[in-house]
């Protein structure tokens, strides 16, 4: 898939934005053909060099950019030539979805296996042990803590997990 096609996808735009942030997004959204230096990118995009470098290194850490170093024979200075590797984006997104799935499964089990109490005034939630330590009174306002039914939350997690499993072709029974 070409850079242009990838960058038109709102999911991929959001993914890149989450990685590099608003200051790095111009770097991520304008991948040049071939190699480019960080200085060239900063000048072309009218950005601070540190912001460009930060975005490039984040992309590098996520296998979305690579570089090669050249040493100037006279000065000894190193020049980094960057190449964007956006072909890895679909694989990265799938890995992110698997991590989300695993984290959501862990959280669902935590919610299922613990009893919670809520201060209706402060909207602070406590586990049973914490609530008991506070004598079932909110430490902030002194109101009584009420037993909290988290079935809606667990059901929402179940629905989200089902959708992720469909998307990732995961057998729920496995």
TrEMBL record:
Subunit record text: Monomer. Interaction with RNA polymerase subunits RpoF and RpoE is necessary for Tfe stimulatory transcription activity. Able to interact with Tbp and RNA polymerase in the absence of DNA promoter. Interacts both with the preinitiation and elongation complexes.
Record InterPro entries: TF_E_archaea, TFE, TFIIE/TFIIEa_HTH, TFIIE_asu, TFIIEa/SarR/Rpc3_HTH_dom, WH-like_DNA-bd_sf, WH_DNA-bd_sf
All residue ranges annotated as the HTH TFE/IIEalpha-type domain in the record: 8-90
Keywords: DNA-binding, Transcription, Transcription regulation
One Gene Ontology molecular-function label: DNA binding
SUPFAM superfamilies per the UniProt record, alphabetical: Winged helix' DNA-binding domain (SSF46785)
Cross-referenced NCBIfam families: transcription factor E (TIGR00373)
Free-text domain note: The winged helix domain is involved in binding to DNA in the preinitiation complex.
Protein purpose: Transcription factor that plays a role in the activation of archaeal genes transcribed by RNA polymerase. Facilitates transcription initiation by enhancing TATA-box recognition by TATA-box-binding protein (Tbp), and transcription factor B (Tfb) and RNA polymerase recruitment. Not absolutely required for transcription in vitro, but particularly important in cases where Tbp or Tfb function is not optimal. It dynamically alters the nucleic acid-binding properties of RNA polymerases by stabilizing the initiation complex and destabilizing elongation complexes.
Organism this protein belongs to: Salinadaptatus halalkaliphilus
Family: Belongs to the TFE family.
Protein name listed in UniProt: Transcription factor E
A GO BP annotation: transcription initiation at RNA polymerase II promoter
């Amino acid at each position: 898939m070409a850079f242009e096609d990838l960058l038109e996808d709102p999911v991929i735009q959001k993914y890149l934005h989450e990685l590099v942030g608003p200051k790095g997004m111009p770097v991520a959204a304008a991948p040049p053909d071939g190699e480019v230096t960080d200085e060239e990118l900063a000048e072309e995009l009218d950005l601070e060099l540190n912001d460009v470098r930060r975005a490039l290194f984040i992309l590098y850490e996520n296998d979305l950019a690579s570089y090669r170093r050249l040493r100037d024979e006279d000065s000894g200075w190193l020049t980094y030539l960057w190449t964007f590797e956006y072909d890895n984006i679909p694989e990265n997104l799938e890995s992110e979805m698997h991590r989300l799935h695993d984290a959501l499964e862990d959280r669902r089990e935590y919610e299922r296996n613990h009893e919670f109490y809520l201060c209706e005034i402060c909207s602070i939630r406590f586990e049973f042990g914490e609530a008991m330590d506070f004598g079932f009174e909110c430490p902030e306002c002194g109101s009584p803590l009420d037993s909290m039914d988290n079935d809606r939350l667990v059901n929402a997690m179940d629905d989200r997990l089902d959708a992720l499993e469909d998307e990732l072709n995961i057998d729920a029974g496995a």
